[in-house]
Amino acid sequence: MDTTIVNILQIVVALVLGVAILLQVKGQGTGLFGSAEGSFRTRRGLELTLFRFTIALVIVFITLSILSARYF
Q1: Could you tell me if 39 and 5 are in contact, meaning their C-beta atoms sit under 8 angstroms apart?
Q2: Which of 8, 38, 49, 50 has most Cβ atoms within 10 angstroms of its Cβ?
Q3: d(CA 64, CA 72)
């Protein structure tokens, strides 16, 4: 892969990851600390899918970062 392609992929993944994180934080109370009752509830449906998608994006982002640092 070319350096430019890896850099563009990394930027796109970072932007999508930021949106996914912001979508998760949106429903959890006020600001950084969240709500107390929301801390210990189980994720279901779309929220669980978004959570797993975020984890997958983090793995892809870290992999691209390692590839970029190691080979390019």
Answers
A1: no
A2: 50
A3: 11
The token duo for 7 is: 């850099």
Cβ pair 50, 24 in contact under 8 A: yes
15-59 pLDDT tens trace: 999 999 999 876 665 555 555 555 556 778 889 999 999 999 999
Q: At what angle do helices 46-71 and 3-26 cross, to 10 degrees?
A: 150
- Provide the residue range defining the domain that includes 53: 3-71
Whole-number Cα distances in Å, 41 to 1, 10, 35, 47: 42, 32, 11, 11
The C-alpha atoms of residue 57 and residue 34 are separated, in whole angstroms, by 23
Interatomic CA distance for residues 4 and 29, integer angstroms = 40
